[in-house]
Amino acid sequence: MNRRKRCSGRQSGISYVEVLIAAALIAVSLVPMMDAVRTASVSAGVHEDAAVQNMHLIAKLEEVLAEPFSALEAAATAAGSEATPSSYSDLPASTNRRLVFLSLYDGDDADADNDSFTGTDQYLMWVRVEIEGTVLATETLVAQ
User: Fold this and answer.
1) Is the CB of residue 126 less than 8 Å from the CB of residue 107?
2) Does any domain span residue 124?
3) How many domains does the chain have?
4) Which residues fall within 8 angstroms of residue 131, CB to CB, at 6 or more apart?
5) Does 35 fall in a domain?
6) Taking the model in full, what pTM does it have?
7) Which of 15, 28, 73, 143 has the most Cβ atoms closer than 10 angstroms to its Cβ?
8) 1 inside domain
9) Nearest to 115 by CA among 66, 82, 70
């Protein structure tokens, strides 16, 4: 039979010093890990707010695009310029108020002045929706 010989000076298993070193390494690595988790949770909240506002914008854009072209044209005429919010905008006291800007659009630049809002094409409408006081906005063109 083969018998294993044990060294009388060495013990098998984990020593107390090895356990202390492992515990110290775990403790040291927990600090940056917890920092990363905190940062991620704060970022998630910020991105959730931005996503909700973006969906709020898109909902208003879809609402406006569902209107007939003639109604959009009348609202653009009533607004007077591309810089004036139209009647499709939310009421002034609304939270995250969405401003809707409408204007006929010069898609072919036939007047050669490089201004998209002069010399307009009769059947092309520019639509912009933005949340008041933020940089969040979306815009598109609508053809009749």
Assistant:
1) no
2) yes
3) 1
4) 53, 56, 57, 96, 97, 98, 99, 137
5) yes
6) 0.68
7) 73
8) no
9) 82
Q: How many residues does the chain have?
A: 144
- The answer to whether residue 116 sits within a structural domain is yes
Which residue segment(s) compose the domain that 26 sits in? 16-143
Task: Say if residues 99 and 127 touch (Cβ distance below 8 Å).
Answer: no
Cβ contacts of 115 within 8 Å, gap of 6 or more: 106
Q: How far apart (Å, rounded) are the C-alpha atoms in residues 75 and 34?
A: 53
User: d(Cα 72, Cα 103) in Å, to the nearest integer?
Assistant: 9
| SS3 letters across the chain | CCCCCCCCCCCCCCCHHHHHHHHHHHHHHHHHHHHHHHHHHHHHHHHHHHHHHHHHHHHHHHHHHCCCHHHHHHHHHHHCCCCCCCCCCCCCCCCCCEEEEEEECCCCCCCCCCCCCCCCCCCEEEEEEEECCCCCEEEEEEEC
pLDDT tens-digit profile, the chain (144 residues):
555 555 556 666 778 888 889 889 988 888 888 888 888 887 777 788 888 899 999 999 999 999 999 999 999 999 988 899 999 999 998 888 999 999 988 877 777 777 777 777 778 899 999 999 999 999 999 988
